[in-house]
UniProtKB/TrEMBL annotation:
HAMAP family in the record: Cytidyl_kinase_type1 (MF_00238)
Cell location: Cytoplasm
Name this protein carries in UniProt: Cytidylate kinase
Main location: cytoplasm
Keywords: ATP-binding, Cytoplasm, Kinase, Nucleotide-binding, Transferase
Amino acid sequence: MIVAVDGPTASGKGTIAKAISAHFGLPHLDTGLLYRAVGRQCALSGGNPDDSDDAFAATAFPDALLADPELRSEAAGGLASRVSLHPEVRQALFKRQREFALQPGGAVLDGRDIGTVIAPDAQIKLFVTASVEARAKRRFLEMQQQGRGITVEEITADLIARDARDTGRTDAPLLAAADAILLDTSDLGRDQAIAAAIAATEARR
Ligand code: C5P
């Protein structure tokens, strides 16, 4: 069983993917982390994230970078969204994601293009959305817990810019697959969102 969980930043897709992974005992890959590692590697090596050669070179990041807490920052998210525009970068990360999806026991992957590009053959596709206000509030609380000084206004501006880049790009834009189940988490608490996602997964299994 392959479970594809897609949606915009701070929609709750990561939390939902982890909960599905724990509930069904499936390995989980947060694919955003791969793009964040490319963005961070590009910055660390003095490259320009908007240059396709520099961004592609950064796809050879060391695996240890995936454990860097800095990858969770808004800055790393912004860099990820810039390097992810280059088709060369998406192609370089494709194999790793596809192999993860094809593990014999199944897998859960979350990202932007799992149901459309990485695993169009997934039995279960969830497209998780929430209003910009709900997402900004969640991201703000998360950043506060991590002790990162950033305002709700800054987060909102960043979310809107990232949504525009992610949905507007020509290669693998953020898009719900035709057969995806839509889950709007704006008015759902964490536990309610998880319960709804697990019920939807059970129903299609
Ligand atoms: O989900 P997360 O915020 O960690 O993703 C960071 C950025 O990486 C996104 O804004 C998006 O541009 C990019 N990304 C992508 N395709 C994926 C996962 C993430 O383009 N499958």
